[in-house]
Amino acid sequence: MKTRFLTPVFLAILIVSTSAWAQNPIVGKWKSIDDKSGAVRSIVEITERGSKLYGRIVKIFPQPHEDPDPLCNECSSDDDRYKKKILGMEIIRDMKKNDQEYAGGHILDPEVGKVYRCKIWLEGETLKVRGYLGPFFRTQTWQKVP
């Protein structure tokens, strides 16, 4: 009788622990770091929907001379994010797994309003985020939020 009871309980524990173990390590909150100053600019939460990754700004760290609740005034007027609040904005869209990285999607830099082709991958404990404009690219290193 005890064996019958333990088997479903054991299976439930195994399923829960396996799904936690298999979670995508890129999913979670990341600190975006300014390339020039080294200051934390925002916290981006990366989530998985279906087989794609998306990233939304969940916190910003404006400089004293900057608007504490900015809008994406620099975004293109045909972009659905135009004149919307940057806090809560989805800046990473449609990233698909490709070997050891995610690519094929786009990232928005709301400060300049430009959308770039994007590739992201893990290097140790950091997330590399690369935006492409034609043959040119810029790579940022983001840090995991504990």
Brief write-up:
The chain has one helix at 2-21; strands at 28-33, 40-49, 52-60, 90-98, 101-109, 114-123, 126-133, 136-144. With 146 residues, the protein is mainly beta. It is globular and about 40 Å long.
Overview of the structural elements:
The termini are far apart. The chain has one helix at 2-21, and strands spanning 28-33, 40-49, 52-60, 90-98, 101-109, 114-123, 126-133, 136-144. Helices cover 14% and strands 48% of the residues. It has 146 residues and is mainly beta. It has a single domain (24-144), classed as Lipocalin (Beta Barrel). The chain is globular and about 40 Å long. The protein contains one helix and eight strands. Strands 1-2-3-4-5-6-7-8 form an eight-stranded antiparallel β-barrel. The longest helix is centred in the N-terminal third of the chain and has 20 residues, at 2-21. A hairpin with a 2-residue loop joins strand 7 and strand 8 (136-144).
What is the count of β-strands? Answer: 8
Q: Return the domain count.
A: 1
Based on CA inertia axes, which overall geometry fits?
globular
Q: Return the string of H and E elements.
A: HEEEEEEEE
The whole-number mean of residue pLDDT values reads: 88
Q: From the structure provided, what is the oligomeric state, counting identical versus distinct chains?
A: single chain
Low-confidence stretches: 8-21
Class inferred from helices and paired strands: mainly beta
How far apart are the first and last residues' alpha carbons, in Å?
A: 44 Å
The first-level CATH class is given as: Mainly Beta
**Mind describing the biggest β-sheet?**
8 strands, antiparallel, barrel
Helical run tally:
1
Indicate the CATH architecture.
Beta Barrel
Summarize the amount of helix as a percent range.
10-25%
Give the amount of beta strand, in percent: over 45%
